Amino acid sequence: MFDEKSINALRKMTESFGPSGFERETARVIKEYMTDYSDNILTDKLGSVVFVAKGSSERPHVLLAGHIDEVGFVVSGIDESTGFLSFNPLGGWWDQVLLSQRVIVRTEKGDLHGVIAAKPPHLLTDEERQKVVEKRNMYIDIGVTSGKEAVEAGVKIGDPVIPWSPFMLARNGEVAMGKAFDDRIGAFVMMETMRRIKEDNIGHPNTIYGAATVQEEVGARGAQTVAHIVDPDVAIVIEVDIAGDVPGIKPSEAPTKMGKGPSLCTYDSSMIPNQPLKEFVIKTAREADIPLQLSQVARGGTDAGRIHLNRAGCPSVVIGIPTRHIHSHVGMLSLNDVENAVKLMIELVKRLDADTVNSFISI
Q1: Domain locations in the chain?
Q2: Which of 75, 124, 319, 329 would bridge 163 by S-S if both were Cys, CB 3.0 to 4.6 A apart?
Q3: pLDDT digits over 189-229, tens only?
Q4: CATH of 4-70+179-359, one of 3.30.450.20, 3.40.630.10, 3.40.640.10, 3.40.50.10280
Q5: Which fold has domain 73-163?
Q6: Which of 15, 216, 217, 339 is catalytic?
Q7: Collapsing DSSP states into helix, strand and coil, what is residue 289?
Q8: pTM exceeding 0.85
Q9: What b/e readout covers 233-260, taking b as 16+ CB neighbours within 10 angstroms?
Q10: Is 174 considered catalytic here?
């Protein structure tokens, strides 16, 4: 399992400030951790960072990608009379999870704490009580009493906002709780895979490109630019998966369960995986005695949706960590699933030689 250095890195990553388009702090945290485990470091011009680990052969290029942006908000207005802040979402938010949640507003004068609020329930009409409060009727309260005070505190339109949600361990260290698991847990799996390969001197017949991509939640934009600079021959995107082991969800809607192993996505709305590569992952997990769940996501996509269309195409799959309550202030996942994902990634990388990768595209 993960040592203190790893857990501290995960804590620092998830607590860092990095909504879509504002990922620089998170990227720096990851770069600092990965410098000792990389032979070279590349960047695109959007803010993604790519860590290179050379194996016994220059090709194939094996891309391991996890996005580091988190869902957040951006200030859209400041009420002159009250100082309350209106906001737009960065990524997908369900209105019902927002009220009474704490947030951090990053301004040119420093970070401000606030809370998402709306009209008090005591003052709602009977008709209003029957409706879900929509984002457009919410505001961020930073404790000021006028727009002038808000501006003097440093707030301006365009300032980014993230959930306030400290990382913590539960269930005797087996379960992690916090924000931004979507998808810093994917980046963390990439990081730990490359760290163990380097520290344990594990041979691999390829060159690994471990990517921390940006702006996935607003259209997988960093995936496109990363694929351009890496020119991958095969790609494994590491993501969260929607854990279906919560009340009200049918197995056919979300089949994976927290604590039962990482998942392999067999279909989502942005990509149908390369079928020989999919079967290769299943076979490898079976041979290595690593638990693997099969999954589908009818709505939604990942960085793989862009990567698999790079140039003439790139065989791609998505490995997921079943996670409860994504796109909210507090997600929950099993560190045993994360550990098994790292083990699976290492086994896959060890087997991805040129002949194997070429077999994925032979007709």
Answers
A1: 4-70+179-359, 73-163
A2: 329
A3: 999 999 999 999 999 999 999 999 999 999 999 999 999 99
A4: 3.40.630.10
A5: Elongation Factor Tu (Ef-tu); domain 3 (2.40.30)
A6: 216
A7: coil
A8: yes
A9: bbbbbbbbbbbbeeeeeeeeebbbbbbb
A10: no
